[in-house]
Amino acid sequence: QVRLVESGGGLVQPGGSLRLSCAASGNILSISTMGWFRQTPGSERELVARQSSGGVTDYEDSVKGRFTISRDNAKNTVYLQMNSLKPEDTAVYYCLADGVRTQTSTTYGIWGQGTQVTVSS
Q1: How far apart are the first and last CA of the chain?
Q2: Distance between CA 119 and CA 15 in Å, rounded?
Q3: What's the confidence (pLDDT) of residue 18?
Q4: For residue 101, how many other CB atoms are within 10 A of its CB?
Q5: Segment-wise mean pLDDT, segments of 10 residues, the chain, 121 residues
Q6: What is the pLDDT of residue 1?
Q7: Per-residue pLDDT at 113
Q8: What's the rounded Cα separation, in Å, for the pair 82 and 75?
């Protein structure tokens, strides 16, 4: 059973920084894509950033230049460094792993439990 465990959310003032982490556990051979999504009440979950195993990245326009996604493939962990945070970044942030390969299967769409990020003075 593959699980994603997120950490690093919290309350921060506008202009501040937070670093989110998401570690995948289980008998994992490789993960194709890892990324971060966010969701606010009444809204659909939206992509924030994602990175392929080869290092190709994709960012939502409003976070470009402020957020940086990175991966440690050896640890099956993805990070999201969030700088210059704004109140509109407030949301529950979810980690996603796609193309998770084990010895018996390849699974898509594995989500973490979510971590709250609140940007407020």
Answers
A1: 40
A2: 9
A3: 98
A4: 15
A5: 94 98 96 98 97 95 98 96 98 98 95 97 95
A6: 87
A7: 96
A8: 21
CB 37, CB 93: distance < 8 Å: yes
Q: What is the 3-state secondary structure (H, E, C) of the chain?
A: CCEEEEECCEEECCCCCEEEEEEEECCCCEEEEEEEEEECCCCCCEEEEEEECCCCEEECHHHCCCEEEEEEHHHCEEEEEECCCCHHHCEEEEEEEEEEECCCCEECCEECCCEEEEECC
CA–CA gap between residue 24 and residue 95 (Å, rounded): 10
Other beta carbons within 10 angstroms of residue 36's beta carbon come to: 27
Cα separation, 28 vs 105, whole angstroms: 10
Contact between 106 and 97 under an 8 Å Cβ cutoff? The reply is no
Strands 110-111, 57-59: pairing kind: unpaired
90 vs 56: CA distance, rounded Å? 26
